Amino acid sequence: DIQMTQSPSSLSASVGDRVTITCRASEAISNSLAWYQQQPGKVPKLLIYAASTLQSGVPSRFSGSGSRTHFTLTISSLQSEDVATYYCQKYNSVPWTFGQGTKVEIK
Amino acid sequence: EVQLLESGGGLVQPGGSLRLSCAASGITFSIFAMTWVRQAPGKGLEWVSAVSGGGDGTYYADSVQGRFTISRDNSKNTLYLQMNSLRAEDTAVYYCAKVTRGIGLDVWGQGTTVTVSS
Fold first, then answer.
1. What confidence score (pLDDT) does residue A62 get?
2. Interface with chain B: mutation pick from A5, A46, A93, A102, highest number of B CBs within 10 Å
3. What's the sign of the alpha-carbon dihedral A48, A44, B96, A68?
4. Integer Cα distance of A67 and A30 in angstroms
5. Between the CA of residue B64 and those of A30, B15, B26, B87, what are the distances in Å?
6. CA–CA separation, A16 vs A3, rounded Å?
7. What is the predicted pLDDT for the residue at B89?
8. Most CB atoms closer than 10 Å: which of A67, B35, B38, B90?
9. Main-chain phi, psi angles of B111, to 5 degrees
10. Residues A3-48: pLDDT tens digits?
């Protein structure tokens, strides 16, 4: 099965900072990659699909890029409401594996 | 508005069984694949199982293969997860989610908690 590896596992940044999270697939998955945000105590929410397409209603400070095996999620200017754990997920074929998550905190 | 509402969680002894349900509203249920995702306490998301819109295609994570059965009743707009031979490591919040092809899991339920303990 294809493994999804995120880095870092956690980070602490200041409000207004640019934040980048990386997700690597153990094999090529084209652009079949989604990013989810899970705020503390909340249900996961789809942020980005097809590696770089912003889901409706998601703030434009979020962006995604990459293809095949290397993907990134960027928050251009971190806000307090962005405190959450972020997960990547492959969906080109089952199993639809998630990355282990990246916890983002405010410094 | 699309809504998914899970039910059926609870406390069960190791080796026991439980059936989860997920009632959908606000969508043409039968045209979408559906999936179950779980999250153990303090842990990340784990994909568990998925079923095609018509119910003829079912898929499972290795960790639940042979113990869990996913199904759906499109006449009732309801998704199910029959869980047998439950283990302590199955303890988690179980979410159902709607799958949109090419997009991913775009609508999630609030989750139902399953605790496997003696």
1. 98
2. A46
3. positive
4. 6
5. 27, 13, 30, 10
6. 32
7. 98
8. B35
9. 95, 155
10. 999 999 999 999 999 999 999 999 999 999 999 999 999 999 999 9
Q: Per CB distance under 8 Å, which residues of A are interface residues toward B?
A: 1, 32, 34, 36, 38, 43-46, 49-50, 55, 85, 87, 89, 91, 94-101
Q: How far apart, in whole angstroms, are the C-alpha atoms of residue A69 and residue A91?
A: 13
Long-range contacts of B27-31 (CB under 8 A, 24+ apart): B27/B2, B27/B77, B27/B98, B27/B107, B29/B72, B29/B74, B29/B77, B30/B54, B30/B74
- B50 with A94: Cβ contact below 8 A: yes
How distant is the Cα of A77 from the closest Cα of chain B, in angstroms? 24
**Residue A66 structure tokens:** 């990459």
CB contact under 8 A, B44 and A101: yes
The pair of structure tokens assigned to A88 is 């990547």
b/e sequence B54-78, b meaning 16+ C-beta within 10 Å: ebeeebbbeebeeebbbebeeeebb
Residue where the block lists tokens 């029959």: B82
* B91-96: average pLDDT: 98
- Contact in structure between A17 and A77 (CB atoms under 8 Å): yes
